[in-house]
Structure formats: structure tokens, C-alpha cells
Amino acid sequence: MNIQQFNQLPATEAMAELQKCCGSENWIKAMLAQRPYSDKQSLHQSCDKVWATVSEKDILEAFSHHPQIGDVESLKKKFTSTANWASNEQQGAQQATDETLNALKKGNEDYLNKFGFIFIVCATGKSAQQMLDMLNERLSNDQAIELHIAAAEQNKISHLRLDKLLSD
């Protein structure tokens, strides 16, 4: 769909499309309120502006709409509307060795226990080993720093998914 088609979608359909990009309800509503968009660039600018204003609750809500890195079963079951996009984004994890996948699983558990939310990374173009290295490095962060980093990663994911949504 192109930007004009997106602008013309009924609100409920546009909401469903935006939810594929970011799971925060307040982000979705704010993005909808700014329609119509003149072009993709204005949509992306709004993405940044809106994301900069969301609360911690909104950020955590967005995180809850992601599967854990390397969790193929979760991709299949829980996230059917974004499974294809998330699967492609996590392609590096799908090509990983069992050892790396097991380390990702353990790292994901440690991360969730420490921070209370799943490890968020813009996985596009990264190998499973790179994601594992990032996860292990970020485990040493404090809560505030990690929330900031994960939120920035979510924003990158939102931009990638907006591009997929509007793939003319």
C-alpha cells in the first residue's frame, strides 16, 4: 500500500496496520490522529515525535507485542499478525546453532528476570551470535539505561515495519 491508501483506510483498519509496527495503543492513536500524511518521510517524522512522548507503560506495552529473539514457537503461536515480519527480522536467529539458540534462551530468561521485560533488539541484518553478544553486553546495564536502549531499538523496529507497510 502507498501513503495515500494508508491515509484513506478506515480508522479500525489503519489501527490494525499500525499495531503491526508498534504495539503501544497510545502510539497507535497518536499516529492515527496525525493523518493524513503527505509522504513516507512525514510518517517517519511522526513516528519519532510520537515515540519520544510515550510513557514507560506505553514502551512496555510495545515490548509485550514481540516474541523473544530466537523463540520460533512464539512467532508461530502468539504473533500471527506480525509473524512473517518478525520471522524475517530474526532470520539470523533461525540460522543459528543449537548451542547459540540455547544461550539465547538462557540469556533471554536472565534478561527478563533482571529487567522485567523481554530483550528488544532490531534484529534485521544481525546474526544470532551478534544478538547474543548484544544481549550479554546489555545485561550489565541498569534498569533506566536498558529501558532507554530497548526503547530506541523498538523505534528502529517501528520504522522498518512502517517501510514494510508502505512498500508502494
Description:
The chain is an all-alpha fold. The protein folds into two domains: 3-54, no CATH class; 62-165, Orthogonal Bundle (UraD-like). The protein is 67% helix and 0% strand. The chain has eleven helices and no strands. The protein has helices at residues 3-8, 11-19, 25-33, 40-51, 56-63, 72-77, 83-89, 91-94, 98-115, 128-138, 143-165. Helix 2 packs across helix 3, helix 4 (40-51) runs antiparallel to helix 11 and helix 9 (98-115) runs parallel beside helix 10 (128-138).
In short:
The chain is mainly alpha-helical. The protein contains 11 helices and no strands.
Identify the overall geometry. Answer: elongated
Strand content: under 5%
Tell me the number of helical segments per DSSP (H or I, 4 or more residues long): 11
Overall pLDDT level: 89
CATH topology group of the largest domain: UraD-like
Biggest sheet: strands, sense, closure? none
Low-confidence stretches: 75-83
In the CATH scheme, the class of the largest domain would be Mainly Alpha
The first-to-last residue Cα distance is 5 Å
Structural class: mainly alpha
CATH architecture of the largest domain, please?
Orthogonal Bundle
Tally the structural domains: 2
Task: State the share of residues found in helices, binned by percent.
Answer: 55-70%
Radius of gyration: 16 Å
- Along the chain, the helix and strand elements come as HHHHHHHHHHH
